[in-house]
Design the sequence.
């Protein structure tokens, strides 16, 4: 870590249904990530939609999730819950794909290298072409699509070595929830970059998935847009997690627990 660079503390967190969410908007989150990346300070960052929050509440995941440095309120309902329960005053959600783009722009300006880890080889190849075109000067110092299976200990050690050897200040991890959070937490003491768990952002920026229209995003309907695109894969996820979220939030507001 560079000792001549000021390193800000992580933003304050508040409890949302048992998960600690950062009380910060997109600008503050991006500022913090870049300060850490420039200073060489490792960190683990997640972006929390409703589905991710319900997954994170599982007993085997909750403790790890609450140790993340930054957990942005990715989903509009999560932001609304923060503001309703804590008066947080967060005006915009901290959307993973948008934050990834912002960090790429800032890394290009400040000469910070980024590493891409996730998705398919096709998507990785597209990102390696389109991101430097979109963000002039962006240095992608490493990129790989991991196998669709659990890595061996040797393979994990090799990934860590490649990321650290690249000199990346930011590692974008896009292997899906909750695998990416498990990966980031497990390697938080070995990987020297700021790890950002960005989910489907790789596919969005590669043009493989369409983003919901802004009016749907603003109204918390992004889940419905994605459900319409992939009903067979996503119906169970959204029916279950959205229902549980609504029930838990109403109980918290009415009963206080």
Sequence:
């Amino acid at each position: 870590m560079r000792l001549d660079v000021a390193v800000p503390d992580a933003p304050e967190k508040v409890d949302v249904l048992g998960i600690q969410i950062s009380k910060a908007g997109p600008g503050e989150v991006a500022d913090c990530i870049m300060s850490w990346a420039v200073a060489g300070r490792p960190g683990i960052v997640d972006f929390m939609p409703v589905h991710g929050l319900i997954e994170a509440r599982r007993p085997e995941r909750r403790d790890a999730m609450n140790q993340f440095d930054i957990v942005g309120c990715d989903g509009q309902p999560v932001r609304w819950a923060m503001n309703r329960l804590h008066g947080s005053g967060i005006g915009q959600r901290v959307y993973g794909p948008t934050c990834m783009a912002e960090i790429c722009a800032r890394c290009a300006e400040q000469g910070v290298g980024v590493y891409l880890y996730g998705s398919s080889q096709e998507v990785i190849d597209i990102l390696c072409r389109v991101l430097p075109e979109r963000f002039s000067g962006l240095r992608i110092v490493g990129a790989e699509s991991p196998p669709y299976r659990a890595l061996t200990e040797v393979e994990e050690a090799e990934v860590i070595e490649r990321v650290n050897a690249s000199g990346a200040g930011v590692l974008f991890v896009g292997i899906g929830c909750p695998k990416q959070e498990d990966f980031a937490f497990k390697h938080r003491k070995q990987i020297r970059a700021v790890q950002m768990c960005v989910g489907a952002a790789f596919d969005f920026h590669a043009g493989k998935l369409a983003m919901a229209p802004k009016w749907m995003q603003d109204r918390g309907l992004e889940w419905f847009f994605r459900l319409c695109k992939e009903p067979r894969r996503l119906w169970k996820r959204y029916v279950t997690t959205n229902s549980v979220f609504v029930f838990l939030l109403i109980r918290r507001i009415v009963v206080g627990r």
Q: What stands out?
A: The beta strands are 13-16, 19-22, 43-47, 70-72, 114-118, 140-144, 170-174, 194-197. Residues 231-255 form the longest helix (25 residues). The two ends are 41 Å apart (CA to CA). The chain has a mean pLDDT of 94.
